[in-house]
Design goal:
Elements: H1 22-36, H2 48-55, H3 59-71, E1 75-78, E2 82-85, E3 92-95, H4 102-108, E4 113-123, H5 127-133, E5 141-150, E6 153-163, H6 177-183, E7 190-199, H7 204-208, E8 215-224, E9 230-239, E10 243-246
Helix pairs in contact: 1-3, 2-3
Length: 254
Amino acid sequence: MTTPLSAILPPNSLQSGVPGPLYVKLRQTLEEAITSGRLNYGDALPAERDLADHANVSRVTVRKAVDDLVKDGLLVRRHGSGTFVAKPVSKVQQSLSRLTSFTEDMARRGLTTRAEWLDRGLFHPSPDEMMMLGLPADALVARLGRLRIADGMPLAIERACISAEFLPEPLQVQDSLYAALEKRGCRPVRAVQRISAYNMKDPDASILGVPPGSAGLSIERVSYLRTGRVVEFTRSIYRGDAYDFVAELTLSDT
């Protein structure tokens, strides 16, 4: 259904109050209508022309405000149908103080997980992989690229690289890479993880079901055995609207 304009904003309300760009005011007004429940999941946004006439602003202003909300995942455009309120996303939190696999982490939250394989096999290492894993040029590496899904929502793309010495048959990996490594006695015991902001690009954005340019998290993990040898090098892309990383900080005694 299409929500009446009067339920979203009073006429000429954008021209009053605190000064500022009209598209920002309109964006904030529409966002507040969504978060307050005046616009619910599945509701159709009024037509661009109707919004512009009602708010006494240009269609360019309306388009810019709506584009921002689509980019943030609050609205979704359906070709030939219009613009609708997107399904709300419940964020998943992962602690930075525990070394766990995606499967283990989601299981602790009671979420059902599955993976879609993007690629899997044995390959000659790239120069980057040789450096990170400490391998000679004639070695082989197992590469595993997966789309990680929790309760039906695509959350992350993981691309892991492991020396074939530790994972000679990558096709036998099922849900958990760490479970497969543990069976061979080479599960990592510590890791260094680097997290940075990332704007989604295709094809990753399409795989994760978000618009190109959406906020994401780029994560590089290097994992080690007890001997200090590197066992895993993984690059991952996480949806920024659905995933939070949480760290507990304590006061040092020194």
